[in-house]
Amino acid sequence: MLKKFKLLFQRVLYPLRKKRVYPQKEMTIDESRFLIRETELEDIKALLAVERKVYGEQLPWTKSAFLTELTSAIPHLYLSVTSELQLVGFIGGRIVGNDCHLTNIAVDPEYQGRGIGGKLIDELVKFAIINRCETLSLEVRMSNKDAQRLYRRKGFVSRAVKPAYYDETNEDALDMIKIIEEE
To answer: Which long-range contacts does 76-79 make (Cβ < 8 Å, 24+ apart)?
Structure first.
């Protein structure tokens, strides 16, 4: 019975409840055109494919984790970047009090280094400002030096180390925060 209700919710009730908070945008990077738009439930398979390319077989998030986030009543924004209808990157964030927590970000390795991740972070900052957040926070693997450099370029600073934060590898996480100032 619960399974049938979830299916009804996903296919019928959720689309009626969901209102767009992000108008899709086009961007051009190195003469390539990309579309940034809100992530849909139908994108979950593509989100997992990008994660698989980025993280190998160690998927940080499952299908059910994405489903839970995308249908959450907590204020949130999940954006996808597409190139010629192929999903090449995404970001997610949720509002908790006066903080916008960056929950997940990934860019297909073939598209990394073009500024897509930075642009996605900029869009999440705008969402945080609209929602009157004072901070943007995240956790990043201690071994992910490239991501840490990107976050520092975007104004994040280290706050603490969270020991054994990642269940699958027992790796520590670096807790980072950005104080949001309206531009």
So the answer is: 77/21, 77/22, 77/38, 77/123, 77/124, 77/127, 78/38, 78/39, 79/22, 79/36, 79/37, 79/38, 79/39, 79/120, 79/123, 79/124
- Write out pLDDT tens, residues 80-108: 999 998 999 999 999 999 999 999 999 99
The pTM for the full model equals 0.85
| Sheet of 171-179, strand order | 25-29, 32-38, 76-83, 86-96, 99-107, 135-141, 171-179, 157-166
Residue tagged active-site, from 31, 139, 166, 168: 139
C-alpha span between 3 and 125 (Å, rounded): 36
Give the dihedral of Cα atoms 56, 61, 66, 69; nearest 10 deg: -140
* Per-residue exposure over 8-41, b if at least 16 CB sit within 10 Å of its own CB, e if not: eeeeeeeeeeeeeebeeeeeeeeeeebebbbbee
Tell me which of 151, 165, 181, 183 is the catalytic residue. 151
151 included as an active-site residue: yes
